[in-house]
Specification:
By secondary structure, the chain is mainly beta. It is 8% helix and 49% strand. The chain contains 1 helix and 5 strands, in the order βββαββ. A 5-stranded antiparallel β-sheet has the order 1-2-3-4-5, with no helix packed on it. The longest helix is centred in the middle third of the chain and has 6 residues.
Length: 77
Amino acid sequence: MAKEYGNDFVILTDEDGRELEFEVLGSVECDGMTYVGLIEQFEDPAAQLESDGRMIVLKAIEDDNGEELLVTIDDEE
């Protein structure tokens, strides 16, 4: 069986309805919750170099249909 290796990417929709692509850098489990680190990806390599390169961290939760959702973290701790 062949295994596929490579980076994981997700498409997220911002509050303005724009779809943005992010690379999943990794995840960590803490106190029964899973947190995911993402960095935005750009089609234009020059835009990637001009970005501030900040990583965002979102919390992974499961909705009523068993689908995984990424949500913002409300508690700064």
